[in-house]
Amino acid sequence: MKYRKMGKHGIKLSEISIGTMYHGSYIKREAALACLTEALNQGINFIDCADRYGIDDSELPLDQRTRAEIILGEFLQDQDRDDLVISSKVFKQLRESPNSGGLSRKHIRESIRDSLKYLQTDYLDIYYCHRPDRKTPLEETIRTMTNLIEEGLVHYWGTSWWPPFLVERTIGIAKEHGLIPPAVEEPPYHLNARFIEVELFDVANYHGLGITAFEALASGFYTGKYVDGIPNGTRFSVEPIKKGIPTGIFEKRRPQILKLAEVANSLEIPLSQLAIAWVLRNPEISSTIMGASKPTQVIENTGASDVSLDEETLEKMEEILDNKPTTPFRQWG
After folding, report:
1. 328 near 167, Cβ under 8 Å?
2. Minimal CA–CA distance to 53: which of 65, 36, 62, 39?
């Protein structure tokens, strides 16, 4: 496993990390713990979580969901906490209350209290604002995050799925008021979602911002398992996830995936490793966050850390993709 600095900052992240979005819901406790154990075996030191993970999957009844932070907290009790980089996120409304949700000082304080309790840790290495909050002044959010860092509850704070102009504005406000700016942004990034290359990379390079990207396999598209449709037992076979899939997406991407598979075969690597290595070709990427439901998937994903793509391969992939971004982001949620 190789490690990269998070932008200009001193903290080092495994360039391939593990996410816990479906831990406690689609991925049950035992499987989640097995994947986390294998992740550490493979040299991963960065585990990404969020307050909403595990409880925000409506295909399961409430009494069958477990907060992902609880499972991760249980796992951390048998590990050397100082060796790991643990993140969580705040934004989601988690209870019926006008002050639950968003990025107000009140909700952030409530969320960090609960996250630390469930994770059974004294601090978070990274705390992300999971989405922009248009109803709360940016200065209030920035000042609250600054306070958390000054109190030792958080080491770095970041944004997740924020448009580049808003990241830039946030950094500017922080500097204007002598506050601590975000150190990292967490956007989606894969072979068919390249919008961050246009503006976010420029922001990251100018300010020394880290980028911890997710969705390198596009929810499994770039494993090749959906070439002939949706197999039973996969994530996309579960309602309501299945309902959210764009009509005709499998047919549209099938020719592209088959051609990319030929490239992977020529390199004697799995298609998944080709897709992950393509993401990691960018020095702006501090880490790519990978989900996994089985330890074997963790092993295959981390194998991409040893894959280096030469210029000829990258040019061939560009021809297949034919989607080099020329306009800013499409949508940021």
Report:
1. no
2. 65
Model confidence over 298-333: pLDDT tens digits?
999 999 999 999 999 999 999 999 998 876 554 444
Alpha-carbon span 325 to 313, nearest angstrom:
19
Who's near 199: CB < 8 A, 6+ residues apart? 164, 165, 328, 329
Q: Locate tokens 């600095």: which residue?
A: 5
Token pair recorded at residue 182: 């975000």
Instruction: Look at the block and give the residue holding tokens 């922001």.
Output: 203
- Please state the φ and ψ torsions of residue 61, each to the nearest 5 degrees: -60, 155
Q: How far is CA 227 from CA 79, 146, 221, 223, 273, in A?
A: 39, 46, 8, 9, 17
Beta bridge partners, 158, equal 128, 184
- pTM assigned to the model: 0.93
Element (H, E) at 85: strand 85-90
Q: Which residues are part of the catalytic machinery?
A: 53
CB within 8 Å of 4: residues ≥ 6 apart: 12, 13, 15, 285, 286, 287
Closest CA to 4 of 17, 20, 23: 17
With contact defined as beta carbons under 8 Å apart, do 105 and 112 qualify? Answer: no
Pairing of strands 3-5, 12-14: antiparallel
CATH architecture of 3-221+238-246+272-308: Alpha-Beta Barrel (3.20)
The residue extents of the domains of the chain are 3-221+238-246+272-308
Tell me the pLDDT tens digit for each residue of 117-170: 999 999 999 999 999 999 999 999 999 999 999 999 999 999 999 999 999 999
CA dist 50 and 145 (Å) reads 16
Burial class (CB in 10 A: 0-12, 13-18, 19+), 166: middle
